[in-house]
Amino acid sequence: MTGFVLVTLLLLFVLFLGLPVSFSLGVTSLSLILYYGLPLKLVGQTIFTSMDSFVLIAIPLYILMSQVLLDGHIGDDLFEVMNAWVRHLPGGLAIATILACAFFAAITGSGAATAATIGMVAYPALTERGYDKRLTLGLLAAGGTLGILIPPSIPMILYGSITEESVGKLFIAGVVPGLVLTAIFICYAVWRSKRGGYTPMPKTTWKERIDITLRNFWGILLPFLIVGGIYSGAFTPTEAAAVGLVYSLFVTLVIYRTIKLRDLPAVCLKSVGTSCMIAMVVAGAVLFGRVMTMLEIPQKLTEMVISYELSPVMFILAMNVLMLILGCILETVSVVLLTMPLVTPLLHVLHIDPIWYGIILTVNMTMALVTPPVGMNLYVINGLRSDITMKEVISGVLPFVVLMFLFLILTVMFPAMSTWLPSVMG
Question: Which of 286, 281, 274 is nearest to 20 (CA)?
């Protein structure tokens, strides 16, 4: 295992130098290629083939779609609809916030986009009605994490591309866990709202509810179009991204007219940065995985696991600890692409369902979005208003981190929660 130790130390050294993850993976891979005398043409071939993937086309499409919806204020409409139906309940605005996050999550596949979109409209509404500020901030940061658990999900697409598992099955596997986590957040929000004090809102009439729902019908239809289309087999996850993008452009340009044609170049440019960042990390991770395979490190890890007779449960527990640590220092895309090239062979050796493990990994990544110092959603919520401090955001999100940790335990203890729906999908 000398090679594995050398690779680990080299990668950690490069990461702690402060290089972006994509460059860290690339530099580590290139150093190993030169040290072990591997052919240099491996670099160009691997980077090209890593981008030549039908599955990965979905990522820039989903990112562009989420930017269109963000600039088109579709999140505002979703919050308005949810608010009309539940605002009279105990903690009604808090419930509406979580439900709006869940619906927007079923459109975009991005935790940061969900937190930013719903946060901009929900934060002033919650604070004006007297909801505790820390609860509000924690609610928005944690609610945004639903963006990568409820399908579609960018981390699931990356996981599927690395492990060659069905992205459609991964998406469907995330439905039940996503709904369960949403319910857990709602229960806590109601309980905490009652303790913290807030100004209740009057109940809307049935006429008002129906009018508001019909007025925002086109935005509400999008999650059902994407998830329903994948579940029914009408189109693949990548095709669903293309359909969703065209539909979102039609809704924002033609029906609601919240975006004009002249705005589209700026909308596209906003999504380019994120798409390029992910593409570079994917290229670096695939190159790193290829070098690891040529050095037979995954095979040696497999032999080590067999020799130590690790049970599947022990392996899952060990990987959860590792991912919780990595989630604090790396963003979600990097954790998925860094670990899976080495872990995938071990899943087959230990007879662990890759779909189940994919959901466990995604639940870990929901926690990574809200754990300092790298939690993306913390910075998104901190940037909503000038009067919001990072200390307030972190203290507000801590109870939700505990809830997500308990939910992670449930996900490990009850695999059927993740595997039942894909098994009946056919």
Answer: 281
Predicted pLDDT at 32: 85
Residue 293: predicted pLDDT? 79
| pLDDT at residue 2, rounded to an integer | 61
Rounded to 10 degrees, what is the CA torsion of 81, 83, 84, 87? 160
| Residues 6+ away with beta carbon under 8 Å from 382 | 388, 389, 390, 393
**Could you identify the residue written with the tokens 């929660």?**
417
Query: Residue 298's closest CA among 361, 350, 346?
Result: 346
- Tell me how far the alpha carbon of residue 219 is from its chain's centroid: 21
Residue type for position 340: M
Walking along the chain (426 residues) 10 residues at a time, the average pLDDT comes out as 68 76 83 85 83 83 87 83 88 91 83 85 88 91 90 89 88 93 94 81 88 88 85 85 92 90 90 84 83 78 74 88 82 82 86 94 92 83 86 93 95 93 80
The total number of structural domains that make up the chain: 1
What is the per-residue pLDDT for 185? 96
Residues whose CB falls within 8 Å of the CB of residue 225, separated by 6 or more in sequence, listed in order: 243, 244, 247
pLDDT for position 3: 60
Q: What are phi and psi of 205, to 5 degrees?
A: -75, 160
Domain residue limits at 327: 2-425
Cβ contact 53:161 at 8 Å = yes
pTM: 0.88
> Structure tokens of 211?
């009018």
29: nearest Cα among 245, 236, 284, 201: 284
Task: Name the nearest CA neighbour of 291 among 69, 32, 91, 16.
Answer: 32
- Long-range contacts at 247-250 (CB < 8 A, ≥ 24 apart): 247/222, 248/65, 248/68, 248/69, 248/72, 248/74, 248/107, 248/222, 249/68
Task: Count CA within 13 A, CB hemisphere, residue 143.
Answer: 32
- Other C-beta atoms closer than 10 Å to the C-beta of 63 total 25
CB 342 within 8 A of CB 292: yes
